[in-house]
Amino acid sequence: MLTALAISNYRSIRELVVPLTNLNVVTGANGxxxxxxxRALSLLSGVARDGIxxxxxxxxxxxxxxxxxxxxxxxxxxxxxxxxxxSAKGSPPPRLRLGFSGDEFGxxxxxxxxxxxxxxxxxxxxxxxxxxxxxxxxxWAGPVxxxxxxxxxxxxxxVRRRTxxxxxxxxxxxxxxxxxxxxxxxxxxSPEVFHVRESMRSWRFYDHFRIDPDAPARRSQIGTRTAxxxxxxxxxxxxxxxxxxxGDRTALDDAVADAFPGASVTIDSEPGGLFSLRxxxxxxxxxxxxxxxxxxxxxxxxxxxxxxxxxPPDLTGC
Length: 318
What we know:
By secondary structure, this protein is of the alpha+beta class. Helix content is 24%, strand content 26%. The two termini are 17 Å apart.
């Protein structure tokens, strides 16, 4: 289980450390940073899954998501006399820092603006100015980061791993535009990196369920055991049936009955191995198919299935 999340210099978030429990609810006024907190989590997950370059490029590049405010607020700003304060001349550009702690391991990454390519002593300016450059990565044991607990440390292109005899260099040529997860993730090379990478890859974010008429969740799908619902809900029927067989079936049925008194959900098997969802509602002569459900009902069933998944990941965002 994750115990804390840390964010620095991401959009409206200057510095933030959030303790986490089994269930965490984030509330606040419009513009208070709720969406940025969620997006930072999703971005952190991308480091271990599909890479972070693409997601950052879609947001306008690293420079677009970095904190744009001053390092320190002046007295005039605190008193409300001025709204804008220029950064001090010569101050280094800010770095985007993301990280988390868990019961077993923690991970943190620091990214900055691309400095160039080629020889370290004579870098050539790069045309890929929107891409981030990985400055530092670390994996540690336990819920609190401290020097003695660090197991894997990456600085620039050098990755080191702690051994019984001290530190061993895993590689000295890791590209600065790649995370250590991209090349050091084999279990035989570094079990700690493999464990953290797979844990982060299991995170799920359910903020964009498709409920339009052509949504995959409204159609029959091949039925295979599905321990975790896909992020767009395409395998709803299979995930629902999986919960009924190896998960908390009672909680699943109660969630439907609480929202729709007298209603129930069943999964039908069709020729060719297809699964389809049937919604039985009190007063109707026949069950409704997923294609006939209202947007609100379908969204509710998707959320229930995501939260009651048979094999919950370390992090689920809704």
